[in-house]
Amino acid sequence: MDLNATILGQMISFIIFIWFCMKYIWPKLIITINDRRDLIQKEFANISQSKKDIQKMYNQANEIIYTAKHKSKEIIKSANLEKIVILERAKYYAEKEKKKILQQAEVTIQMKKIQLKKKLTKEISTLASMMANKIIINTIDTKYKKHNFENMINTF
Description:
Layout: H1 5-155
């Protein structure tokens, strides 16, 4: 192996280059790598915290949904009870109104019945008096005619 000045110069310049890199470039690279590592660790921590938050929110959402379902069932149950109460109350008032209307109808029917009886009695009495009048007139006419006929026969 032949060592000459060129190789020696290259070795010295390479050693200077390494020293320069170790002195000025390497610490900045280490700082940048450490910063990047810290940033990645923070991101992983944030992701982990986010997963925990998401799980917590998911649990809260499920709890809210369960509570809402439970409340909706209670509301539906309460509404059904209210419906039954309203229907029973309406039924009661309808029956009460029905009785009232029936009583008014019976009173109206009784009044109409009395009015019709009075009217019928009046008509019957009018017809009876007219018939009696005709009978009397017919009786008088036949007696008068018979009397006139007998008088005519006697005069001849």
